[in-house]
Amino acid sequence: MSRKTTIDALFAKKPVDKPIEPLGAPNSMERAVPAVRTGAVAAMGASLQQWSAAAKASEDLQAQIANAKTIVELDPQSIDPAPVRDRLVIEHDPSLDELVKSIAEAGQQVPILVRPHPNQTGRFQAAYGHRRIEATRRLGQPVRAIVQALTDEALITAQGKENSERRDLSFIEKALFARRLEEAGYDRAVIGTSLSTDKADLSRLIQVARSVPEAIAKRIGSAPKAGRARWMALAELLQAPGAERRLGAVLERSTFSAFDSDRRFLEAMRALDVPSAREDEKAEPDVLVEDPAGKGIVSRKRGKSTSQLIFNETLAPGFMSFLASELPNFYRRYLDQATSTSSTRKAPR
């Protein structure tokens, strides 16, 4: 009996090409009892079954990928971001926290799009759905995905189209994405198709992205309410001598990062002394004093030529009255300090 026939007989229960002895033949009762697999034979059988199962799973996944419209489940740890990122990544994104909660409660409703990684077998690159990947990664669960074999150009086109259909990129995100794509070697026709924009708008996008340092743009954030005109104004103001230094001082304030990105943009414009930013009455007031829990006690709202102090009398009842009684003393101290400073400056050397 051949080696292959023996293995078939052991694991596949395939009949062996050997005459069956009559029931009354010698040792027939012993042979009627099934043999128990032990030792190396049992280990070999388990390994073969595992290989077979793995191969079948791989074949199924490849068939689903070839179909291109079948949704598969992937380990989010096996997915790398797109070669050129489109969105600004911020340290704390409240909307991402909401997405995590939504997927935890209702599941992932919309699949992401990935392609097989061009350089690493068994890994993938995301065309879109980076936030869903991060959300499922945090939850420790697979991410639902459509896998397609995409060229580099097809991938960035899918990136831009999905953003247009679902949640538009802000102006500065488009600008930075366009500049990154150009630096990566894509021609402007491909970039324009990806962003669904014409040549003139594309030129303005790239011009702004080159004028606003990316580090500043990242600190401000996407600022979805700030359109092309405001970002172009900011880019122009940054060309003035000392502008980046003045703005940098504002960006480093501890209170700056606590604002949403639209408010951060207004603060940046204000730092560069743009009247239109100071005239924005919808801007939230600056928090000047906080309680131990970090809640605002005193805030300041700026106007064209005056400022208002706003007191939270629920959290600190009577503080306004106390401060009002002390204001004359504060003012005298201010005058004394101003006089002292003025005398020091005028003193002969």
Outline the structure in words.
This protein is of the alpha/beta class. It has a domain at 3-51. Helices cover 53% and strands 11% of the residues. It is built from 15 helices and 8 strands. The chain has helices spanning 3-12, 28-32, 39-67, 94-106, 130-139, 152-165, 171-183, 188-195, 199-211, 214-220, 228-237, 243-251, 261-271, 275-278, 319-346; strands spanning 71-74, 79-80, 112-116, 124-128, 143-147, 286-290, 296-302, 307-311.
List the helices and strands and how they pair.
Blueprint lengths: L2 H10 L15 H5 L6 H29 L3 E4 L4 E2 L13 H13 L5 E5 L7 E5 L1 H10 L3 E5 L4 H14 L5 H13 L4 H8 L3 H13 L2 H7 L7 H10 L5 H9 L9 H11 L3 H4 L7 E5 L5 E7 L4 E5 L7 H28 L3
Parallel strand pairs: 2-4, 3-5
Antiparallel strand pairs: 1-5, 3-4, 6-7, 7-8
Primary descriptors:
349 residues, five-stranded mixed sheet, three-stranded antiparallel sheet, 15 helices, 53% helix
User: N- to C-terminal separation?
Assistant: 114 Å
Low-confidence segments, given as residue ranges, are 1-36, 276-281
Please give the number of β-strands.
8
How many distinct helices? 15
User: Which word captures the global form?
Assistant: flat
Helicity level: 40-55%
User: SS-based structural class?
Assistant: alpha/beta
Mean pLDDT: 76
User: Which sheet architecture does the biggest sheet show?
Assistant: 5 strands, mixed
What is the H-and-E element order? Answer: HHHEEHEEHEHHHHHHHHHEEEH
Major sheet strand order: 1-5-3-4-2
Return Rg in Å.
34 Å
Beta strand %: 5-15%
